[in-house]
């Protein structure tokens, strides 16, 4: 299974914008076989009412964030139950913009993951180094620390429900991306740490996606050749045509991998 996750961020500013987006999405998705691809769009929470039940099949809905409690006096926050009730199956957690502007730490992210899992939402957890950490040669240490704190205390069954998105912070919104070999190295590191914490089978079952300036032309480099399980797409997710193309490329690469495994 390959994952194509679109993070629409704080875009589509009016109900008309959302309706127009849905019309284009429907037009650009219809008739395309997206076998073996889990295609998820994550709109701003206020758009859920407009989008629920209007997504062309097989596209699913996800949240961009949620709170770690179910309900109560938490002004401005979104409950995981609200997300679920409005049709979400996934939720992005620990996005670097949440970490940067709202001070989210791995600890906070860990609490949110716990609540998401309890509410049967699949968390897509973002991790990644800053450009300073990268220049100081600390990428490996940052990733290992994040993985250890995110997965700490979860059972194997819970761990397998978590999706990791490796998003180098310097690659988000910048049109710069790491080399294929660097992405691959991070995936191998994540597998190694997870197999130490759990076992090899569990480590193999945790999908690891790439995110940061993803677009169609870069997909082979940042995902397919790097052996990643899919991508988390920001700006390009506003263009349904591009997303369909990427879904098709992922579907094809998944089918080729399956064939290789059968040989
Ligand atoms: P970008 O954003 O694709 O616009 O770089 C990626 C993300 O924030 O997940």
Describe the structure.
It is a single chain. α5 packs parallel to α7 (139-151) and α7 (139-151) packs parallel to α9 (180-197). The chain has an 8-stranded parallel β-barrel with strand order 1-2-3-4-5-6-7-8, surrounded by 4 helices. The protein has helices at 15-29, 48-51, 80-85, 96-102, 106-118, 131-135, 139-151, 156-159, 180-197, 200-205, 219-224, 240-262; strands spanning 2-7, 37-42, 60-63, 88-93, 122-127, 163-166, 208-211, 230-233. With 263 residues, it is of the alpha/beta class. It has a single domain (2-262), classed as Aldolase class I (TIM Barrel), CATH 3.20.20.70. 2-phosphoglycolic acid binds next to β8. 2-phosphoglycolic acid (PGA) binds next to β8.
Largest sheet: 8 strands, parallel, barrel
Strand order of the largest sheet: 1-2-3-4-5-6-7-8
Count of separate structural domains: 1
Oligomer: single chain
Percent strand equals: 15-25%
N- to C-terminal distance: 18 Å
What is the general shape? globular
Level-1 CATH class name: Alpha Beta
Which key phrases capture this entry?
single chain; 263 residues; alpha/beta; TIM Barrel; eight-stranded parallel barrel; 12 helices; 8 strands; 46% helix; 15% strand; globular; binds 2-phosphoglycolic acid
What is the topology?
Blueprint: E1 2-7, H1 15-29, E2 37-42, H2 48-51, E3 60-63, H3 80-85, E4 88-93, H4 96-102, H5 106-118, E5 122-127, H6 131-135, H7 139-151, H8 156-159, E6 163-166, H9 180-197, H10 200-205, E7 208-211, H11 219-224, E8 230-233, H12 240-262
Parallel strand pairs: 1-2, 1-8, 2-3, 3-4, 4-5, 5-6, 6-7, 7-8
The structure holds 2-phosphoglycolic acid.
